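name: query_chain
kind: protein
chains: 1
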Amino acid sequence: MNLNQLRVGIGHDTHRLADGGPLIVGGITIDHDKHAEGHSDADVLLHAITDAVLGAASLGDIGQMFPNTDVENEDRDSAEMLSIAWGQVQQSGWQLINLDCIVFAQRPKMAPYREAIQNRIADILRVDAAQIGFKAKTGEWVDAVGTEQAIQAQCVALLCRADQTRSTGDAQGGIS
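structure:
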């Protein structure tokens, strides 16, 4: 493989937390006593993933594609935004090798939702769930995350040129 055919992108997002649930993370609705505030549905993880894949493909960021000044994006489903962005990444000739994602939240514990989140992200991107890494960290009761004022997410995406994927019709974006 020609290493010039690989691209790495990083995404990060932070949202304030407010009283009243539910909390949406990774396209999954979680019963919780807080929710993330934002112009869209405030899914911090899907926003970080969107930035990571757009960045890897040199296609800008979520704010350029879906500005919070556009009334059409108010309360918009972040899964829809990721799907549209991912479509543009694919049209630019890129396929996913893998994502590695971290959610930073003091509460709720994310481990019980890990598989559902991985499966939902894989469904949105139309890839195998094994290509989606997910972990969660607390704020150890310090800083904005630890005091439950905010939730954060980071994601790293590794893409390869579509012509570098397996020629067997494999849509998972593996390299040969």
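note: The two ends are 7 Å apart (CA to CA).
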